[in-house]
Amino acid sequence: MMSLLQRYVLGRFIYCYVSSAAGLIGIFLIVDFFERVDEFIRRDMPYSDLIFYYICKVPGIAFYMAPQAVLLATVITLAILARDNEIIAMKAGGIGIVGITLPIIGASFVIAFLVLASNEYIVPSATKKMNYIFKVKVQGNQKYGDTYILKEPSAAQLWFVAKDKAIWNISQFNPEEEKVSGVRIFYRFDNGEIKKRIDVKEVIWSEAHWDFIDGFIRTFDYEGKSTTEYFDKKIIPVSETPDDLVRNIVVHSDEMGLRELYKEIQEMALEGKDVLKNRVELYHKISYPFISIVLALLAIPLSLRSSRHGGVLFCIGINMAMGFVFSFLYAMGISLGFSGFFSPFFAAWGPFLFFSSLGFYLLFTLDSEYIIPRLKL
Q1: Chain segment 164-182, per-residue pLDDT in tens
Q2: What is the tens place of the pLDDT at every residue in 298-341?
Q3: Is 170 in contact with 197 (CB distance < 8 Å)?
């Protein structure tokens, strides 16, 4: 059970966290509003769409702002307590630094898990709706239904490898109607040369198979000679289903929850596709909320040390500098993970483990006058 003083510290921290998070989200929304509002006005969009767009944007912003809000809340809470000599009074009452700061660390854990849950159950659907408003209604891209966006609008760019190793090239996909337009499918010999090509105007899903409408099939032998079969409608067995097409060409990673992303990685791995970037993205989504704990561990000793030499602004400056260094190294690690220089796990968790260790070290040496304790000879 928490003591009365620990509840007092926790209440101060929660108040500072809510205020910091609201302030950071508000600043981001204001900046984004002035960048986007012209596009809404040019399209003569109703105010309801503009308001709903920013409502849907809040969960994603809250996900990225949560660690910074924890950092600010920790710094402000401890700096004010130190300024008012409340920490000295608590220590005089028999409560150590660990007891004073335990509510902050515990609250950081809770915030991290809440942000992780939000990123699984709230952020993906909100991002889909936000993208639909901006991509379709505002920018006038091709309508795709209620939730999905084509990765590339150009037919020349929509290429992917199917489960049976066939290469698909399409110009348009409507998931709502389960219809694909402008389709070319290529099958290859083991040596890489084309053995069959299917060109068709439309492909429509009908219960358990695809109906190929208005097209032709060209078949090649090893000598390069070909035969052509034209058809108005034909059932051709292929491995892909509408759900497979959605996963291959439609959904952005920021519109996917952790389970969806993990499922996609497993399926891509079974198909022999490169999943490096997807694994990095998965580890990034899992590790990012726990940055809140790292920043709290760093902010506690830095705030208490810097409060001996300056006021609240000095504490904020020191901790923001440390937060910037951590964020820079974390972002660099993710970037190197995408390029294959680091493993996906180390790219996401390496900076986390290093700075967590640094935070614990600074916390354990807090009572020393020196960051690196002097050895007695």
Answers
A1: 778 888 877 777 678 888 8
A2: 988 888 877 666 666 777 788 888 888 998 899 899 989 888 88
A3: no
**To which H or E segment does residue 198 belong?**
strand 194-206
Q: How far is CA 235 from the centre of its chain?
A: 40
* DSSP assignment string, 289-358: GGHHHHHHHHHHHHHHHHTTTS-HHHHHHHHHHHHHHHHHHHHHHHHHHHTTSS-HHHHHHHHHHHHHHH
What is the domain partition of the chain in residue ranges? 4-129+281-364, 150-249
Q: From CA 226, how far away is CA 12, in angstroms rounded?
A: 77
Q: Which of 314, 307, 260, 310 is nearest to 282 (CA)?
A: 260
Asked if residue 144 has pLDDT above 60, the reply is no
The rounded distance, in Å, linking the Cα atoms of 166 and 187 is: 5
Cβ of 195: how many Cβ atoms within 10 Å?
16
Candidates 163, 186, 185; CA nearest to 269 is 163
**What secondary structure does DSSP assign to 120-155, as a single string?**
HHTHHHHHHHHHIIIIIIIT-PPP--SS---S-SSG
Indicate the residue type of 242: P
Q: How far apart are CA 351 and CA 196, in angstroms?
A: 50
CB atoms within 10 A of CB 370: 7
Helix (H) / strand (E) containing 230: strand 226-235
**The pTM is what?**
0.70
Average pLDDT, the chain: 81
